[in-house]
Amino acid sequence: MPKKRHILIIGGGILGCSAAFALSQRTHCKVTLLEANTLAAATTSSAAALLTRARHKPVIADLVRETFTAMAQLNTLLDQPLPYKKVGSLHIACSRESSNQLDMMAMLAAEQQLPVHNLSMAEVRQKSPWLSPPDGARALFMPEDGFIDPYQLAMAYRQGAAACARQSGAELRILQNTRVEKITFEPASAHPACVTGVKLADGQLIDADIVIDAAGPWSTLLANAVGVDLAMAPVRSHYWITGKLSSVPPDSPMVILPDARAYARPEVGHLLFGLRDYQPVYMSPEQLPNELSGFCFGHDPEGWQALEDGYEDLAGFFPEIDRVPVEHYISGISSYTPDGSPLAGFLTDDKGKIKLEGFIALTGCSGGGIGMSGGLGRLAAELALDEPLFTDLKPLALNRFGSVDPLSDDFQRRCALARMAKRSG
């Protein structure tokens, strides 16, 4: 029997668990997943987890489509179906710019063979009684969209990985509370530099043929130590949850409001809503703590300034915000790139030659990691095992921004501005 390729995954968030699931379906794999704390307890668990299918970038559409395929596979593998809430997404446009965006969404949905409907304002109010769009607004409804509990999806990937490993004969080991201190490598001499494994915080060395850096915002420093500059920065991502609202039925759709720089979805009779920051809020990877309990960016820690900045625009669609209490504020980290697309693959030069053999990045999802998780996990498995890729890797290439310094304030601010410019959910 040929020797199984040992693939080591750093990070037990949604991407690490998804990569383990995809790899465990391959017979000739030995997979070790290392999580510094507990699985999916860092950035994954704080995600709003909106799953929208129609995407402007073909590669993102491919990744999202694969996530839904993976979810269907998990529903077959596991005893209980995934808690996916297929409530649909409702897109509201008031300005010419957002109306053009709706036209583009409708065209993309048609191209991707997704159902899409134009709704009257009466139909909008019937589906979402809390919503009061201004006169002249347009509405587009996509019934296949929905949301999911991100922690439960990550755990499903983990359970699916274990089930697949039993069936395929792959070896799977998942170690929690196991912090990686650094990636080990042999520097370039006559051959390209090559990773050899990792060194843990307790000094233990683990050898590996492939190391997948899926450590979220902590990916940057791990990669930087082996000469890889990941073009991303930790940027604030946050949302609020109101008190109980009778105007928010449990099956009301997600709502995308580009003119208010906002999105919303039902949350067990409450309304969860997110706002884009009006000023860049970010942090250097060097300042991140080892775990995120009680973490804040040091600016507007309770979100009141951000809520005040977006209040007037949001109130134009959600008049009850004047009366309903805000019960929870959740602030997390999104690893943003300048173009809002993830970083995936090997580090290569301009001619496509790999500069560090055995190192694969899987990070920088810019707030979309839950929706792209299944596709990125599959892509990591194909890269690690030299299989044909199911989508075009070029838009996700690590070197697509040229030479960057992810530890510089100017670059981190550039990533935060990309977050501010986002208008979709």
UniProtKB/TrEMBL annotation:
FAD dependent oxidoreductase domain residues: 7-383
Molecular function per GO: oxidoreductase activity
Record-linked InterPro entries: FAD-dep_OxRdtase, FAD/NAD-bd_sf
Alphabetical list of Gene3D superfamilies matching this protein: D-Amino Acid Oxidase, subunit A, domain 2 (3.30.9.10), FAD/NAD(P)-binding domain (3.50.50.60)
UniProt entry keywords in alphabetical sequence: Oxidoreductase, Signal
Name listed for the protein in its UniProt record: FAD dependent oxidoreductase domain-containing protein
Signal peptide range in chain numbering: 1-22
Entry superkingdom: Bacteria
Cellular component GO terms held in the UniProt record: cytoplasm
